[in-house]
Design brief:
- The chain is 63% helix and 14% strand.
- With 461 residues, the protein is of the alpha+beta class.
- It is elongated.
């Protein structure tokens, strides 16, 4: 009876599991990754920590106020002329002390460093955002490339299987030799192995995407049919390099590092400079039971306002050595900035020419796809009239499907390469994903395998 009660629930769960997985766009998966990726979440937390650290530098210019309180009890014995007297009294005090820096060169330099920490935190967070955009896009198109590879291999397997069946039929009727059958069988076994490898590669790529976006079963949209890849704009490498020098977060961080190092030198120089503070205090002292010189209770109020001037004279050469250290670190920061500018420029040029090369490869592979299709049609026709053999058709099929897979992969590489180019130039934003996302379509185009040709019955073997 209990089993029958659970049957509707079991059927409902089974029906839910049988529902098709809803595909997701690139923007959807990127939004999911922003809330799940551990590296990006760590960068956000570090950003918030850096902002709080920057605010701490303001404290060096603001007043400090302290509340003090104390209490003590004293036992006093007095011996005079052979007479001894004992008495006790208590002292209670409470006060407020305040100090306002008027001139402290080191404190002002620390405040300026804290202000720069805000810009540094923004540059670091921007780096993490750009890295997440590229990682999500790369994982997204890796899955699509693996899906295409598996689809083309399966289509090739179907075509080879039909070619194998045709060779067997022709051998049975005596119009072909066993060689055609064995060649087709060898090619079928090879494609089967490729299918297993492609299926495993797709599983691995999906697991990587699932982990990145925090979903169980991602299903990316494929490229829309007859998609035309966007042209590279601007098409001048020097323009991209100039943008990188102005906007790349790595260069921004290096520039900020140089400014911080310069301010650190100013702080070291401040070790020779005087300091001037405004001080104020208000203290209440209460004596209960008198004091050492009085036997009556008393209460006193003490209010003090003044300025404190300190001029450093000698600190064991610590200031001079500290100044040498900061000057060396300032030179290091300047060298780091030069290295960052050179590396970013080189990376931008490499990314630019990578996209240009990718667009050229796409055009060449599109032409190769058309040529491979024509070659396959010609070999099928030649096989029918007896001027081509079975292995020629099989080779043409392999070449066609291999070209299709390379063409699909080249298209994905161009799209990801365009994002990497923007990352290299420091201009990559989440809005750039909208242009890529517009090239995707919810439904994938069907891929049909070319039908194998049967050899002429009069062809000798």
């Amino acid at each position: 009876m209990k089993t029958y009660r659970l049957l509707p629930l079991t059927l409902a769960i089974g029906a839910a599991l049988a529902l098709p997985v809803r595909a997701q766009s690139l923007l959807e998966l990127y939004d999911a990754a922003r809330g799940h990726d551990a590296a990006y979440q760590a960068a956000k937390s570090q950003y918030e920590a850096n902002l709080s650290k920057a605010d701490q530098a303001k404290a060096a210019l603001l007043p400090t106020v302290n509340l003090t309180a104390g209490a003590s009890s004293t036992q006093l014995r007095t011996e005079s002329g052979g007479n001894t007297s004992d008495r006790s009294f208590e002292n209670q005090n409470v006060g407020v002390n305040a100090t306002q820096p008027l001139y402290r060169a080191a404190n002002f330099a620390s405040y300026q460093q804290g202000t720069l920490q805000t810009d540094l935190a923004e540059a670091q967070l921007l780096t993490a955002e750009q890295d997440l955009i590229v990682r999500v896009s790369q994982a997204y198109f890796d899955v699509l490339a693996s899906q295409d590879s598996l689809t083309f291999v399966q289509a090739q397997k179907t075509a080879v299987a039909e070619q194998l069946a045709s060779a067997r039929r022709n051998f049975e009727v005596g119009t072909a030799t066993i060689t055609d059958t064995r060649e087709a069988q060898a090619r079928f076994d090879l494609v089967t192995a490729q299918e297993i490898a492609a299926d495993n590669d797709l599983r691995v790529k999906k697991l990587a995407l699932n982990q990145l976006v925090g979903k169980v079963d991602t299903a990316p949209y494929p490229l829309a049919p007859a998609t035309t890849l966007p042209a590279l704009a601007p098409d001048d490498v020097n323009t991209w390099v100039q943008q990188s020098q102005d906007q790349h977060p790595a260069i921004r961080q290096a520039r900020i590092g140089l400014e911080v190092a310069t301010l650190e030198t100013d702080k070291a120089k401040a070790g020779h400079k005087p300091t001037l503070d405004l001080t104020a205090s208000h203290t209440l002292n209460r004596n209960v039971g008198g004091s050492a010189i009085s036997t009556t209770d008393s209460r006193t109020y003490n209010t003090t306002v003044g300025v404190q001037f300190v001029l450093p004279l000698f600190a064991g050469f610590a200031t001079q050595n500290r100044l040498k250290e900061t000057l060396a670190l300032e030179d290091k920061a300047r060298a780091d900035l030069d290295a960052a500018q050179r590396n970013v420029a080189q990376g931008t040029r490499a990314s630019y020419f990578g996209v240009v090369s990718g667009l050229g490869q796409v055009k060449a592979l599109e032409a190769a796809e058309a040529s491979s299709q024509s070659a396959l049609d010609a070999n099928k026709l030649g096989y029918q009239v007896g001027v081509r053999i079975n292995i020629d058709v099989l080779n043409s099929q392999s070449q066609l499907f291999d070209t299709k897979a390379k063409l699909a992969k080249a298209r994905y590489d161009v799209l990801v390469g365009g994002l990497k180019l923007r990352q290299a130039s420091g201009t990559l934003k989440s809005e750039d994903l909208q242009g890529v996302n517009a090239l995707l379509a919810p439904a994938a185009p069907a891929i049909t395998a070319p039908a194998p040709a049967a050899p002429a019955s009069t062809q000798p073997r």
